[in-house]
């Protein structure tokens, strides 16, 4: 049983391909899955009675195998089924269960509920009587565990095809799936852990890993650590937040055009001028936080786009940007839109959140950080990273400005790709929120960043 950080994420189709390519017989894979499920339930269930809910497909087959293994281990276990098995593998697994099988509608609750009704590949919701039974049994259980996915969840989009009471633990078979990480399904999965069943997971999507940051070299100086220019606008507090966050990582932060004095003294301030971005030492430019929607703002964005610096484009600048302009630039760009800004930038892009972020990155040639509780980071190469941790307190004014500044600082650093910079920034941003705790404001994030950086891997 493994945490999911950094692991490859498979869609339903990719999971089927991985199983077929594993060289392992499907029955053997089911036996492995069922045995692994049973071992987890045995270890965390405290010896309490287990009720296993089995569906008609292979997810139900996993449940029958797990029930048999639990019984052999001396754990009291009952099985309730939705219907007779409908696949050869599920029928084989049902034949291996020596106990009775109750109809779900007549089953009594148990302290541990194992949901093996439906897993990967579900295309329609559960019938209402089944939903009602699942809710009733879950409410009376002390611990609910879902096999692969909670029943009633769309694997690839995270949509809820049926109402679900929520699991405390979801045991992903072989690899995490998109629904483990995407709203609205992700919170209903509880803690997600992966069970190794002997397949090789291959995909361009993965769970966001722990940020990897290197300490400055022994011979480092402020410019070798990266110089960031933050362009201010009509709301100077937003750019001040971005600059303050950048200063926690970069060696030199230049705030251009800000009228605010509420800044660390370490941040250098200059007035805006047409040649403000000519300094060749600038490693990345952050533009957009508090920029404004006027012609002055547009002129500043045009100057940034005309430069040869790497760019982080956020906030108001996203409302002024034509994404097609990025394709001709040699230096990398990172876009950090929330859903509303994304819809403005890419009005014709449809599909799941993963599909939309990936398409937008391919069309624009920029790395796209599609923000939200289920943030997606997509590179023009098709690589996608999905954030696994959710801190609701991040839904506060200015938190995106902090993320933009942090992203710019990481992008300005030595030997860093746009995807790596964006990924580490999102991880550190979330970790800083976790450290800051409930009732945080965006200013608290900048103060928590040193502790977050200390938690990052080398």
Automatic annotation (TrEMBL):
One of its GO terms (biological process) is metabolite repair. Pfam families: Carb_kinase (PF01256), YjeF_N (PF03853). The keyword Transit peptide does not apply. Keywords: ATP-binding, Isomerase, Kinase, Lyase, Metal-binding, Multifunctional enzyme, NAD, NADP, Nucleotide-binding, Potassium, Transferase. Its cofactor is K(+); Mg(2+). Residues 205-456 form the YjeF C-terminal domain. K(+) binds at residues 59, 115, 151. Binds 1 potassium ion per subunit. PROSITE patterns: YJEF_C_1, YJEF_C_3, YJEF_N. The keyword Chaperone does not apply. NCBIfam families: yjeF_cterm, yjeF_nterm. Belongs to the NnrE/AIBP family. Belongs to the NnrD/CARKD family. This is Bifunctional NAD(P)H-hydrate repair enzyme. The gene is nnrD.
């Amino acid at each position: 049983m493994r945490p999911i950080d950094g692991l490859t994420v498979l869609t339903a189709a990719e999971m089927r391909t991985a199983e077929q390519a594993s060289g392992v017989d499907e029955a053997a894979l089911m036996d492995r899955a069922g045995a692994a499920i049973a071992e987890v339930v045995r270890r965390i269930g405290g010896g309490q009675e287990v009720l296993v809910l089995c569906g008609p497909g292979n997810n139900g087959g996993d449940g029958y195998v797990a029930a048999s293994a639990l019984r052999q281990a001396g754990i009291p276990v009952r099985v309730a089924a939705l219907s007779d098995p409908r696949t050869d593998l599920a029928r084989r697994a049902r034949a291996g269960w020596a106990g009775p099988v109750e109809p779900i509608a007549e089953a009594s609750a148990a302290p541990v509920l194992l949901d093996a009704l439906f897993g990967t590949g579900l295309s329609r919701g559960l019938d209402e009587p089944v939903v009602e039974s699942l809710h009733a049994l879950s409410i009376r259980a002390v611990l609910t565990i879902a096999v692969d996915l909670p029943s009633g969840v769309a694997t690839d989009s995270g949509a809820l095809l049926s109402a679900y009471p929520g699991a405390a633990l979801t045991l992903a078979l072989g690899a995490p799936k998109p629904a483990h990480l995407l709203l609205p399904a992700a919170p209903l999965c509880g803690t997600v852990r992966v069970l190794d069943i002997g397949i090789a997971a291959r995909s361009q999507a993965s769970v966001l890993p722990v940020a990897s940051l290197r300490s400055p070299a022994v011979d480092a100086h402020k410019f070798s650590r990266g110089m960031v220019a933050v362009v201010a606008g009509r709301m100077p507090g937003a750019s001040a937040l971005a600059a303050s966050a950048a200063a926690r990582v970069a060696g030199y932060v230049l705030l251009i055009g800000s009228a605010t004095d509420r800044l660390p003294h370490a941040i250098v301030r200059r007035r805006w001028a047409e040649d403000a971005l000519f300094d060749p030492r600038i490693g990345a430019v952050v533009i957009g936080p508090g920029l404004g929607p006027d012609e002055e703002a547009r002129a500043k964005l045009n100057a940034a786009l005309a430069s040869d610096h790497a760019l982080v484009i956020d906030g108001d600048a996203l409302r002024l940007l034509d994404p097609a302009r990025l394709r001709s630039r040699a230096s990398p760009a990172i876009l950090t839109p929330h859903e509303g800004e994304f819809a403005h930038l890419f009005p014709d892009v449809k599909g799941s959140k993963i599909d939309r972020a990936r398409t937008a990155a391919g069309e624009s040639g920029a790395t796209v950080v599609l923000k939200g509780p289920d943030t997606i980071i997509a590179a023009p190469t098709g690589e996608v990273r999905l954030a696994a941790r959710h801190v609701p307190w991040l839904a506060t004014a200015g938190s995106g400005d902090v993320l933009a500044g942090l992203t710019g600082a990481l992008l300005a650093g030595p030997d860093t790709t746009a995807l790596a910079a964006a990924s580490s920034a999102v991880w550190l941003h979330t970790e800083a929120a976790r450290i800051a705790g409930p009732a945080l404001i965006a200013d608290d994030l900048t103060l928590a960043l040193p502790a977050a950086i200390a938690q990052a891997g080398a």
